[in-house]
Amino acid sequence: MSIRSSISPLLRGTASLSHLSKGSFRITRSSSFTSSIKVSTHRYLSTTSNFKMAAQDTPSGKEVQKDDNVITNWVNPSDKSGEFKRQQSTFRSFISSSPGSEFPPEAGRYHLYVSYACPWANRTLIARKLKGLEDIISFSVVHWHMGPKGWRFVTDEEAEQEDVKGEGVVPHEGGLSHLREVYFGVNPEYEGRFTVPVLWDKKGGKIVNNESSEILRMLNSEFNGLIDEPFKSVDLYPEDLRREIDETHEWQYDLINNGVYKSGFATTQEAYERNVKALFEALDRAEKHLADGTEGPYWFGERLTEVDIRLFVTIVRFDPVYVQHFKCNIRDIRSGYPAIHKWMRNLYWNIPAFKDTTNFNHIKFHYTKSHTNINPLSITPLGPVPDILPRWEEVPAVSFRG
Ligand SMILES: N[C@@H](CCC(=O)N[C@@H](CS)C(=O)NCC(=O)O)C(=O)O
């Protein structure tokens, strides 16, 4: 079966379908967050419901500022470079179909803890659907708000709220309140960040891996013995493109996927400018590639690969969040990058794995209401309207150009 025909059933309308690691700052399990508790009530633009934050997630702003080790200090205040430095993921085991593997592929054994807000976690949800692993790997989604104790699971009541609800947004089955408890459950001395995605082994009670790029690879290849066509033939990392895929990841990860964070979390003008300029140079490069370099709708023409997944999750968040919240505003996608815009909208509107795993409420509320160092009043901007344009509609300035 050709790659094209293996992907086509995935298209809409068809039948089957402390850091410690060597990095910048330390996170302590300080109890200082909980000593002064304040419950705040937020009103959301797209809903009429009010949402009460979990009490333990809302220390006063002052208290958070005072502590150099708080989780929401994205750059260590004593780091004069002002640069955001992403930590290395800690859990790096592999699900493998090789004999004797500690983590063999098995239906129902593995679970993904994710956030709809998070681009890295979003990658894994897209791959899970593209590979037809819905009945094999379960998933659950944390609340969009990330407080000083990190991601937390929703309550029964929250799971029904307009701004929170979505597929997989459910309380933790074992009754945990925060994702950090999953990490401490496997290692009480854990000192890294409590990141999503987490690939969890339900049988062994272990974290297999918390690095999205590696989880993508496992989902792509290791479950092929358990799935049928057409999903088996979906290959997001085909042998003959591996060198080019890896080369593309290298610049896109640093300058685009992580580049938006390095721009937005920078704490000096110099660090911000350096990173935002590099980000837009990389977007120019992507635009050029998609405008002249491909003979098909995907980054590599007719073949949908990891590159499409990894770039999409950043681009789909770009206009709704990164332009204003991370100050990535030299251009936006919808009016400044026609080829990227077209490529993104094809993925979103034509392939359910992309649209169904994109939740704009979680995306917008998470960044604007969790990063209080960037947006202290937690007011979520209304625009852009809509979050993503219909397939063939342009912003007026673009369509008037003819
Ligand atoms: N390298 C990791 C990065 C994951 C990551 O940074 N996730 C963010 C959400 S977008 C997170 O969970 N952050 C929580 C924290 O840093 O405390 C991956 O690709 O899996």
UniProtKB/TrEMBL annotation:
<feature type="domain" description="GST C-terminal">
    <location>
        <begin position="238"/>
        <end position="370"/>
    </location>
</feature>
<dbReference type="InterPro" id="IPR016639">
    <property type="entry name" value="GST_Omega/GSH"/>
</dbReference>
<protein>
    <submittedName>
        <fullName>S-glutathionyl-(Chloro)hydroquinone reductase</fullName>
        <ecNumber>1.8.5.7</ecNumber>
    </submittedName>
</protein>
<dbReference type="InterPro" id="IPR010987">
    <property type="entry name" value="Glutathione-S-Trfase_C-like"/>
</dbReference>
<dbReference type="Pfam" id="PF13409">
    <property type="entry name" value="GST_N_2"/>
</dbReference>
<dbReference type="InterPro" id="IPR047047">
    <property type="entry name" value="GST_Omega-like_C"/>
</dbReference>
<dbReference type="InterPro" id="IPR036282">
    <property type="entry name" value="Glutathione-S-Trfase_C_sf"/>
</dbReference>
<dbReference type="InterPro" id="IPR004045">
    <property type="entry name" value="Glutathione_S-Trfase_N"/>
</dbReference>
<dbReference type="InterPro" id="IPR036249">
    <property type="entry name" value="Thioredoxin-like_sf"/>
</dbReference>
<comment type="similarity">
    <text>Belongs to the GST superfamily.</text>
</comment>
<dbReference type="GO" id="GO:0016491">
    <property type="term" value="F:oxidoreductase activity"/>
</dbReference>
<dbReference type="InterPro" id="IPR040079">
    <property type="entry name" value="Glutathione_S-Trfase"/>
</dbReference>
<dbReference type="Pfam" id="PF13410">
    <property type="entry name" value="GST_C_2"/>
</dbReference>
<keyword id="KW-0560">Oxidoreductase</keyword>
